[in-house]
Request: fold
Amino acid sequence: MIVGSFVSFRAARYLVHDDRIYPFAIAVVVGGLVGARVAHVLDNWNVYGGIGTTGAPVGSTIAGYIAARRLRLPIGFMFDISVIGIALGEAIGRIGDVINGEHHAIACSGLPWCVRYTNPATLGQTEYVHSVAAYDGLVMVLIFIALVAYWRRVRGKPPESRVYWAYLLLFGGFRFLTSFLRLDPLFVDGLQEAQLLGLVYAIGGGLMLPILTARGRVDSGRRSVTTTAT
Reply:
């Protein structure tokens, strides 16, 4: 959270030069924790303790929207810089998941990166399995790099929020795929809760990103015509 917030703060200084970014960040973090907790409880009615990161975007989006409106911050821009920090924070957070071995996966054999846990007090599996937490961590690093590159390309060019939708597309799509390696409870129609949420995120991002990109091209063309006419 600390590292991700720091990165988002640095990005926010491109446009927001006052301290309103701090209460906004707190709202996003708290909203994300609440959303993640709700997702975990829904996925594990009989077990309490822990969070489900796929529920975090819902809580963060709701809390971030409310905070941005109350603080009179540019919503699209704040969403864009927030997901950059969130992606990095999630990548770092997966290190803890690798250590405690709480995410169980399907069996793995013949691959040099198959892992097993040998400590008798571990939560991890004692047979060789896929390290899904490590996979997710690497994916989040790649998403972070992609988002930074994309943000540098589109920042200052309306419409805003394209980086946010790109995050949902990438995060949702990859989580849908990597969840096939997990042994999480099935939620609906043979799919895990994370896969259903991942599909929703990916579809939302896949629809909104082209729409916003096309709108940006139209607006850019209009500005060019206006400038030429002037």
User: Anything to note?
Assistant: Strands lie at 186-188, 191-192. Residues 193-229 form the longest helix (37 residues). Residues 129 and 182 are 10 Å apart (CA to CA).
